[in-house]
Amino acid sequence: MVERANRRLIFTLLAGAAVWVPQAAAAEAEQQPAPQSAEKDSPQVDESGNLDNAANQSSNDIVVTATRQTTSLQDVPMSVDVASGEQIQRLNIFDAKDVQQLSPGLELTNTGGRNNVATLRGIQSDPDAGAGAVVDFYFNEVPVDIQTAFTAIYDIDQIEVLRGPQGALRGRTSPAGAITLRTRRPNLDAVDGYFQATGTEDHAYNLQGAVSVPVVAGQLGLRMAALYDKSRGNQVRNLVRGDRSNAETQSFRISLGWSPNPDINVNLAYQYLNSKNVQQTQYVSTGTAPDLPFGTTGGVPRPIIDVNDYASIDEGRRQFLNRTNLLTLNSDFDLGPVIVQATGGLQRTTLRSINEIDAGNIVPNYTNEQRLKVPYPIEMAEVRLLSDNPGGFLNWSLGGYYYHQGGDVTVSQGNLTFLRGAVFQAAPGVLIPIGVPPGTELQINTGVDLFIPVKSRTYAVSGSVRLQLTEKLRLEAAGRYTDSRGEQRRELTLTPVPAGLTNPIVTSTKNHDKPFTGGANLTYEVNPDLTVYAAYGRSFRGGTTAVAGPTRVSTDLLRTPSEKSDAYEIGVKSAFFDRRVSLNVAAFYQSYNNFITRLGGIFYDEGTTTSAPDGTVNGSDSFNYAADVTVKGVEATLAGRPTDNWDFSVSGAYTKARFDNAALPCNDFNGDGVPDTVAQVNTLTPKITGGGNVSYCVFDSRPTVTPDFNFTANSEYRFAVGAVEPFIRGIVTYRPGVSTSSGYRFRARTLMNLFAGVRGNDGAWEVNAFVKNVLNQHRITSDSENEIIQPTQRIIVTATSPFAGLTGGGTPYRSGYRLISSTVPREWGITTTLRF
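Given the sequence above, the corresponding structure tokens read:
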């Protein structure tokens, strides 16, 4: 009753706002001047340093900071997708993951509630791999962890998706691209701001707003912004516990802008973030009857579940908490012939999670919760010197960079070992042989505690030159030398301790990398509306050492070599119809040497204390592995404002990313040398072939499950009716079906969001109704593919070594379920916005 009352209250407030806002805006808002077209090479930035793309849109002269300076998008020699703050608000983008709707080939996903994964140009970045990011994230030019970057979007000036190798102009190297988020800066001359309220019929609410106040007119300003967001997340209901997924985020930001004269600009921003995400794991049935340990269902429901049911059957909790304090500093000092840029950042994030690891509820009336704490104490500082010679023959930059990350990761969980046909029972700390009839099912509960201290320190120096060879031909080159040191260490404590081992079990590897990365590009301006370019980029990621999972396995499963990649790109940027429409096309080729990939669900034989396989399948886990990959493709965007009443953007990307006949860990239960199909994994008894700790197969398939082609389009049409402006707008993304290496196929999906509403002619207020996932498609977006099963073991007990006699795997327990994530159902709502 209370929840329904709250829902009615919020919708009443929204409806009231829908009536009051137009009246208040008409009475109080001042008429704003019509935007003027920007001249080429003079993109507009407002008086506070915000990117004024609302004004630039009429001439399609979008401003970006991809090169660390404000530059017209049409002059940047790389493929860039842009989402302005206005566009983010209009499309109700409340989560960074939704930015993928505006950038074809970009996938930002969170399948389990904790780890966020980014994919771009067919290459995936999984934070659990422990490697450098494939797609890096920057918040006000400060690198941030992917978990924090995904959590909240509000009062944003602009988001840019930079494609291809990064690191020459920014602090860290990332081979596939980078995503930069820039917050809105204080207005030094006038009071301004906004308030936006959104509510949906499915208990989702988003309240956000900001206000800028000039403290000293024209010199010092303060901006305060805040967010409250609540939703049902992935919309999954738990059939055992009776609760639903839910997510709640609270955040505020205080920004201070100082510009005592035109030559000094300083912006300091502090952001606090507190989020709680209870994400129920979604399951679907496999059609296989589950095995029930100990011969009982325990009253736990095990129904047939389809993707449309949005259901979970876990008994334990899955809860994820993020508390972040983030401070960023951006400053520019114009000293005449030289500009000094200083950037700094402090991040203090603590991620805590409780995660049920008895996936598929194999053991009824039993919960096995993993507790994880991940701190992110990060310090970053960078100083750059730039020549101030616009239009001159030579421009250059020099920079120094420092980055440090620490923190101690802790993991605590029980570790359930299943046994079939054993002849013993458990006693505290020891196993005592007894006469139990063969076939009796027993279990041992053991404790696992992990302590993973994180140490990482990076120094780098960088430089760039820009030569205006002729009036139309420009050559640019940039390089970065990096000295990076770190230690990957694990301290594992087991209870009880297996024979031959002593707690804690310590593994440690120190890394010291000194890569040189960078790139060059050649740009030719055929005419003011047509530019062509060619670019080269080189990237690097240091090798990784396993800090979780099994340790008694071969070295190739524990340590990967460093990764290097070389990328080549050619592109055309053009404009038509008095520069109201643009067409940008880029073709690229990138080769990865020792690409660091992460392979999940691989069954392994941990063997003895010397890592020699002994024929027992001990379980399944994820492993990092290195292999060569080739990526090639084409990207194109057609966008513009053909008339004052209509704007549109259509983008497509074709990317073919494939392993180069790479030998990788796989599941090969039948020993035929190729990855098992889903049906084989779900029916055959797990077995390791080839004599190693895992099976190996040769792959020439995709390194990640993304289709070669992706498409997105958005548009708005508006018309004036007296003092108001009705409008309709929409966005659609298309993702074709795609098959995995094991033969499982994801269905194609078309996601469409539609908006209809009205706003004042001066843009001071807006009310719109919207429908998300108009077609109500329930599509699986990630799938474990294989049935969740638990390997079993047979043990021969001795008086001194209860774990010494592992003699081989028994028949595994099968849950009857697969783990998936899917698109959320259709949802409608209303948004009210007031700007002042």
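The longest strand covers residues 442-468. Try to locate this feature in the token string yourself.
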